[in-house]
Amino acid sequence: MLIRKPNDIPSSEITDESIFRNRREFLRQLSTAAGVGAIGSVLPACVSASPAPQAAAAGKPGPYDVVDEPKTPEKDVTTYNNFYEFGTGKDEPALNAGKFKTSPWTVQVDGVKKPAKYDLDDLLKGITMEDRVYRMRCVEAWSMVIPWYGFPLATLIKKLEPNPSAKFVEFRTIYAPDQMPGQRNPFTGLDWPYIEGLRMDEAMNPLTLFAVGVYGHKGPNQNGAPLRLVTPWKYGFKGIKAITTIKFVEQMPRTSWPLAYAQAYGFYANVNPNVNHPGWSQASERRLGGSGSSLLGGLLSGANPTRKTLMFNGYTDQVASMYSGMDLRKNY
């Protein structure tokens, strides 16, 4: 059950949401940090995803690459994840997702010229993959720099030919409680299957990616295999994983986190440093695994200094025009 926090409680006195949901994770990190004066800095981290690169490996950064920042170490990207279907602890997806079956995989597509259930290989046939290095920002004040392998979502949308009336895209993840222990857990605060959505112009933006890989190889499962959404100017929860349904609709989808905790999570999920989570400030962040360090080691050694959170996660030039005239405090 999600707990509403009274407005008169200072954010500094409120326990981090992910910590109170995962006491075991908190105690594990607390025991590591104790004695180093870092207890107040132990916060949960960001969301990651799926496999591969070429351009980056060849030293040819693409137009979206973050060339002036070190990539988050692969070990952190693949072992410190948000994927509640496999557990609310950051370490649980890596521990629990190993036997998750991702092949064969089908995707139901509706609201298009030819609605059908597609085999994933057929759905992606003829689509060219590319490498992109994106900043990824989490609500819990952490960020990553992740090398994704995938393709612009716009490429698939054009191939599918949505109905002219479509104004939004709705995504649903697989419902497989026999394989996903988190879907059997009544205390996640979420209803299953997980639902996410984008406005059509957001889905068609060149930054929006369907990722099929990360760091040069397919999977791993805890990163969202075999197909996940990447919207780098939004908070990490706007990155639905293990997608099995794509539906083009006229009305804004009722998505999982706003349904669970509307005071904290809105449909748009745009990174806005001026809008705080009810439990903590969003004005600053720490880069996960900074300077090639390990997760907690980097924090304790000072390799992960606090940095100012950038509007739209630093992608203002590419996306701000989509929200011209909107109240970005109301539409958070």
Named at the architecture level, the CATH assignment is Alpha-Beta Complex
Determine the fraction of residues in helical runs and give it as a percent range. Answer: 10-25%
Alpha-carbon Rg, integer: 19 Å
* Tally of individual helices: 10
CATH class term: Alpha Beta
Structural class: alpha+beta
Which stretches of 5+ consecutive residues score pLDDT under 50?
A: 1-59
Task: List the secondary-structure elements in sequence, H or E.
Answer: HHHHEEHEEHEEHEEEEHEHEH
The main β sheet shows up as: 7 strands, mixed
How does this model look, in words?
With 332 residues, the chain is of the alpha+beta class. The chain has one domain: Oxidoreductase, molybdopterin-binding domain (Sulfite Oxidase, Chain A, domain 2, Alpha-Beta Complex), CATH 3.90.420.10. 18% of the residues lie in helices and 19% in strands. The chain is built from ten helices and twelve strands. It has helices at residues 17-21, 23-33, 74-79, 92-96, 120-123, 153-160, 200-204, 256-260, 295-301, 316-319; strands at 106-110, 116-119, 130-137, 142-152, 168-173, 195-199, 209-214, 217-218, 228-230, 243-249, 284-287, 306-308. The strands form two sheets. Strands 3, 4, 7, 8, 9, 11 and 12 form a seven-stranded mixed β-sheet that branches. It has a five-stranded mixed β-sheet with strand order 2-1-10-5-6. Strand 7 (209-214) and strand 8 form a beta hairpin. The two termini are 22 Å apart. Residues 1-59 have low confidence and may be disordered.
